[in-house]
Design brief:
- 2 copies of one chain form a homodimer.
- The first copy, chain A, is an alpha+beta fold and about 375 residues long.
- Chain A has 3 domains: about 20-60 and about 150-240, 2-Layer Sandwich (Gyrase A, domain 2); about 65-135 and about 255-285, Alpha-Beta Plaits (2-Layer Sandwich), CATH 3.30.70; about 290-369, Elongation Factor Tu (Ef-tu), domain 3 (Beta Barrel), CATH 2.40.30.110.
- Helix content of chain A is about 20%, strand content about 30%.
- Chain A has 8 helices and 22 strands.
- Chain A has helices at about 20-25, 45-55, 75-80, 130-140, 160-170, 210-225, 235-240, 275-285; strands at about 5, 30, 35-40, 55-60, 65-70, 95, 100, 105, 110-115, 120, 145, 150-155, 180-185, 190-195, 200-205, 230, 290-295, 310, 315-325, 330-340, 350-355, 355-365.
- In chain A, the strands form 5 sheets. Chain A has a 6-stranded mixed sheet with strand order 13-14-15-12-4-16, sandwiched between helices. A 6-stranded antiparallel sheet of chain A has the order 18-19-20-17-22-21.
- In chain A, a hairpin with an 8-residue loop joins strand 14 (about 190-195) and strand 15.
- The two termini of chain A are about 30 Å apart.
- At the A-B interface, strand 1, strand 2 and helix 4 of A face strand 1, strand 2 and helix 4 of B.
- Strand 2 (about 30) of chain A pairs parallel with strand 1 of chain B, so a sheet runs across the interface.
């Protein structure tokens, strides 16, 4: 497939680390929350193998925060998500589907409870800040909503624990999954969570002090030689194999949380108030008509730039493929597809056409691994 | 400056014309409303000269529509903009700053009044749909809000009138600026406005029937040879010379409409109800502390990837440069900058540093031409 340049401008914001990753050999960008997000440092497959073996440092500043504080902040945050946050704790991260009045998805952020009346919504690629502002204004909530200067560095991979321990000491290895705390780097406190957009383990540093964050970024490479540390970015292959879903790629505002396998984050039984609750109750009682499933395709390469229709043997449309890559683990192409009932079961077969070639596929469960 | 690839995926949506422009030689993309927007077909300067002389066909499907209909639609649309729409007419386009509760900008769309209770908000690059949904839910408005399948083709340049007349007949040349009407192409009606993101004159076809729109796209090139028609895209040089502002580049949610020169679209005297009205009254009475101005820089090339600080001769920060390009007309670099009081007057001088080079600049009025 031909390569096209990205036309840079202020509208596609750089991050505090952009000049660093450009020196380190970033080759491709995507745009995420109006910001540059590195998408490749040369071969994605090489980077995949490295991520599963060693440790990578990622510029994921494009994971922007929506800060919501003030007297009604908990009420507003709860109103936006179908996950019950009534027992949420300070110092914890919560994966929360954000739902509109129709029961459809607007985003799937991780929400950090910083204090009883202070939250960070760490967003996927859509302007949650304007949804929050609209709701808060309409409801006359007493809240303050803004995008703080937080530019995340992710440290991912099995050796991330050793690398982080070398800098922050033993205490950081005791952080529980999706817990966060504050750690000192040369006199500056950083909020660090045990989280990240891979299944290889790791941490995310929510950098508020830009200068210290840039020093920390450099420090990872200065002292990480023994762990074979390399720059990296969310890896298409690793995230599909692990079944990590991507808003905009695998699902969007036309899909509901049941269709996306988010059942366990939909709390319809409690008496919490959130948007789309009645719609979701109706959807649940009627049953969904389609669902995100895995597919395996008998080919060695694929390059997806949009949805691709999936037909069954009778020529009927049974769904659409939304993300795909060659998987070194399965030695074939795997992908994530929205499959219609009654075809969303793992015995189902189908085919799709890409660049004039017809390819056979098999439906399977998610996650792949 | 080094080129970086854009990593395509479903999240950066293709348009119905993407495969066509790729055959026609598009070389760079930007991302706009989560969609691919062509940014260059080879040299931007060559394209600039062509646009000012002949006619171009642009894939601007990334100008997405937010459709708002229903009983309370006029109330919701008015609530979002500081421009008085109480006397707005069906068949007209209105350039409308969208304002939040703090009096800051969220977008600067063109709003089309399709019927008394049906509007299209033709948006710049931010998710206005979620702001509208948040507000409508919070206010319990009786409205329907969604993104319709509308993929705009723009026809821009002095010969656009002849090209359009050849297809749609004399009637289309009688369309007033920012007026729209429905025109037939081989049996399909298309909404066509006399508008577009250049000052060279032209039209925008709001394509709802994708197949007919693709045929029309091809038809422009089949019959446009005599007008030297070429594919193109919003042109950085032409839009800066003409002083067409860009949300995200020249201003964003940290700026208010007075700072951006939108005074004539801020109607504080009428009794219409819109967000941020009291804030804007206060800002107006206190006076603004900075303003978007032009700058002229004594150099032959520039490549801006973000804001650049502007200092005066005493070394004080007087503003930041947000967009810039080499202007063949002025034979120097021109740009758009947010300049602080008391420095925002056309006699002011300053300097900035780009890639280690210090460059002298002069502040001037907008638009340049």
């Amino acid at each position: 497939m031909k390569n096209y340049s990205i036309a840079k401008s202020r509208r596609l914001r750089s991050t505090p680390y952009t000049s660093r990753i450009e020196k380190q050999g970033v080759t491709a960008y995507t745009v995420y929350n109006h910001m540059l997000l590195p998408a490749a440092f040369g071969s994605i497959e090489d980077s995949y193998h490295h991520l599963k073996k060693d440790v990578q440092v990622w510029d994921v500043a494009a994971e922007r925060q929506v800060e919501i504080s003030g007297k009604d902040s908990a009420k507003l945050v709860q109103l936006m998500t179908c996950r019950d946050l009534s027992k949420s704790k300070i110092g914890r991260c919560y994966y929360c589907p954000i739902i509109d009045d129709n029961g459809n998805l607007i985003n799937d952020p991780v929400i950090l409870k910083l204090a009883e009346n202070k939250w960070w919504i760490s967003i996927a690629d859509s302007d949650v800040i304007f949804f929050a502002k609209g709701l808060a204004t309409g409801k006359k909530f007493d809240v303050k909503i803004f995008e703080p200067n937080v530019d995340i560095i992710a440290i991912q991979g099995p050796k991330s624990f050793s690398l982080m321990e070398k800098i922050f000491g033993k205490k950081i290895t005791e952080l529980k999954f999706f817990g966060f705390d504050y750690f000192d780097f040369k006199g500056t406190k950083h909020l660090i969570a045990r989280s990240g957009w891979s299944k290889q383990g790791g941490f995310e540093v929510y950098v508020e002090n830009t200068k210290s964050g840039q020093d920390l970024y450099d420090h990872f490479f200065e002292i990480g030689l023994e762990f074979n540390v390399k720059p990296g970015c969310p890896n298409l292959i690793e995230r599909i194999e692990s079944g990590l879903l991507s808003y905009g790629n695998d699902f969007d505002n036309h899909d509901n949380p049941f269709e996306c396998g988010f059942e366990k984050y939909v709390n319809l039984e409690s008496d919490i108030v959130f948007l789309g609750k009645e719609k979701l109750k109706k959807i649940k009682s009627e049953g969904i008509k389609r669902k995100l499933m895995g597919v395996q395709i008998e080919t060695k390469e694929i390059s997806l730039t949009g949805s691709v229709n999936i037909m069954n043997i009778d020529g009927n449309l049974i769904g659409d493929l939304r993300s795909a890559c060659y998987s070194p683990h399965f030695k074939k192409v795997i992908g994530i597809a929205m499959i219609k009932e009654p075809f969303c079961k793992s015995s189902e077969t189908g085919k799709l056409e890409i660049e004039g070639k017809s390819l056979a596929l098999k439906v399977c469960e998610l996650p792949f691994i």
